[in-house]
């Protein structure tokens, strides 16, 4: 299987950001993706891709500050929270 083109990866992650399941997460992650994806390194995109694989209920609780995020996503969740003004 060939490696995914960078532009295709950005489009895929943007689409996954806005088609979640919980409308609040659609809005939050769509805003974050619009603002940040293009400037992310490959490692940051990989981390964001992994975050998008997490359950929406968990993501919402992490981003809203109801529950501490999984340690591997703590920095990314903090960045999302900062962008939406939750900190």
TrEMBL record:
SUPFAM superfamilies: YgfY-like (SSF109910). The keyword Glycoprotein does not apply. Keywords: Chaperone. InterPro entries: SDH, SDH_sf. GO terms for biological process: tricarboxylic acid cycle. Belongs to the SdhE FAD assembly factor family. This is FAD assembly factor SdhE. It comes from Thalassobius vesicularis.
């Amino acid at each position: 299987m060939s490696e995914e083109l960078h532009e295709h990866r950005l489009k895929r992650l943007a689409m996954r950001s806005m088609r979640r399941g919980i409308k609040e997460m659609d809005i939050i992650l769509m805003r974050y993706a619009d603002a940040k994806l293009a400037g992310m390194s490959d490692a940051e995109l990989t981390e964001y891709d992994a975050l998008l694989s997490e359950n929406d209920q968990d993501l919402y609780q992490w981003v809203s500050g109801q529950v501490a995020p999984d340690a591997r996503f703590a920095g990314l969740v903090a960045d999302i929270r900062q962008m939406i003004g939750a900190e």
